[in-house]
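A reminder from the course coordinator: this example appears on the midterm review sheet, so study it carefully.

Given structure:
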């Protein structure tokens, strides 16, 4: 018997997040284990008169590619993938991994080389998104691998996912997302025109400029499901100080623990980690933009209160901030370009605070303005 929450999630993604309509050309990408959600999305796209296309990955496809691909194959840009990013109206990705650690022992230089090959495609993707030419959504279908990462039973993790997406049967999900949107918009309005943000906490004292930049309200109506954050692109040359990240920074199948970064005039000049430090340095050396921040954000989803090792959820934990090394989103005014976009999280609930233009904005995980 199919879980009715899967059908509700597909409906919210198509009607609220990506607003699929008749005639839209849609690609639905994802792991084969996500078949229930992929099938629901495919069928509902057809019912709306859209033109859905499937791009489904085998469980070990990525690990096999990076293990055996030659340099020429790593440098090759698939014309099919390029077409998805450059021509389609809607892109939906449903992650459903069987083994989140499968890429742990892959050479990070190969992953970095592949990312560089797709840098122009990523840049065009961000441009089209900012211009409203491409609507997209990243979501997740619960699997045993994700449940194990969070130290939950699969049924517990399913409840967590669908509660975070507001499709757990408690009221109208769209109405709940709209209420979150209104709460977040009040913060975006307050932040408009502000110049400087300072983060102070255990092992952290970081100052960054947001002058002339725009905060974006991520309310489930664009981009991710679940959502629940506001973000901007810091001024690329005006980040200074030191930051220690609370949780492991998970990226491309690896966990990098106890990441600490030192910034001078926007650039990472020193980086340490207690685990997978070599991987951290390899990613920082991907290109010039990899050593600069492309994003600074506040997590605001009240339904996400625990760390899961999955950035789709963790960057929205209520009471946290996160920063991303690498590519900026053009709609914020950010101009940093890179082949990477790597989010890392600071938990303000553990004694941190943020001031904006000298005024206290958040303390111990609570917004106070």
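Designed residues:
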């Amino acid at each position: 018997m199919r879980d009715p929450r899967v059908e509700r999630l597909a409906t919210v993604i198509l009607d609220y997040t990506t607003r699929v309509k008749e005639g839209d050309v849609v690609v639905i990408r994802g792991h084969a284990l996500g078949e229930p959600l992929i099938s629901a999305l495919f069928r509902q796209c057809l019912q709306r008169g859209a033109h859905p296309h499937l791009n489904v990955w085998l469980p070990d496809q990525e690990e096999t590619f990076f293990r055996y691909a030659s340099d020429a194959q790593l440098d090759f840009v698939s014309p099919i993938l390029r077409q998805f990013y450059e021509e389609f109206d809607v892109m939906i990705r449903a992650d459903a991994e069987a083994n989140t650690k499968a890429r742990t022992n892959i050479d990070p230089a190969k992953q970095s080389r592949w990312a560089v090959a797709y840098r122009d495609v990523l840049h065009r993707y961000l441009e089209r998104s900012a211009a409203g030419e491409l609507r997209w959504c990243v979501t997740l279908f619960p699997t045993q691998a994700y449940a194990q990462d969070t130290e939950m039973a699969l049924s517990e993790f399913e409840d967590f996912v669908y509660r975070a997406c507001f499709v757990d049967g408690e009221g109208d999900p769209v109405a709940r997302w709209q209420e979150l949107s209104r709460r977040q918009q009040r913060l975006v309005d307050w932040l408009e025109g502000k110049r400087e943000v300072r983060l102070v906490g255990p092992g952290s004292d970081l100052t960054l400029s947001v002058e002339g930049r725009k905060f974006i309200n991520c309310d489930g109506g664009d981009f991710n499901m679940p959502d629940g954050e506001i973000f901007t692109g810091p001024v690329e040359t005006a980040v200074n100080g030191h930051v220690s990240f609370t949780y492991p920074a998970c990226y491309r199948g690896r966990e990098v623990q106890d990441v600490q970064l030192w910034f001078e005039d926007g650039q990472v000049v020193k980086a340490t980690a207690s685990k997978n430090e070599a991987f951290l340095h390899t990613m920082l050396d991907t290109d010039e933009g990899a050593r600069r921040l492309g994003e600074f954000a506040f997590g605001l989803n009240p339904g996400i209160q625990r760390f899961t090792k999955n950035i789709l959820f963790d960057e929205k934990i209520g009471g946290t901030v996160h920063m991303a090394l690498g590519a900026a989103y053009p709609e914020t005014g950010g101009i940093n370009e890179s082949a990477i976009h790597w989010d890392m999280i600071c938990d303000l609930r553990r004694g941190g605070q943020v001031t904006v233009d000298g005024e206290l904005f958040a303390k111990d995980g609570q917004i106070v303005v």
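The chain is about 30% helix and 30% strand. Residues 13 and 19 are 8 Å apart (CA to CA).
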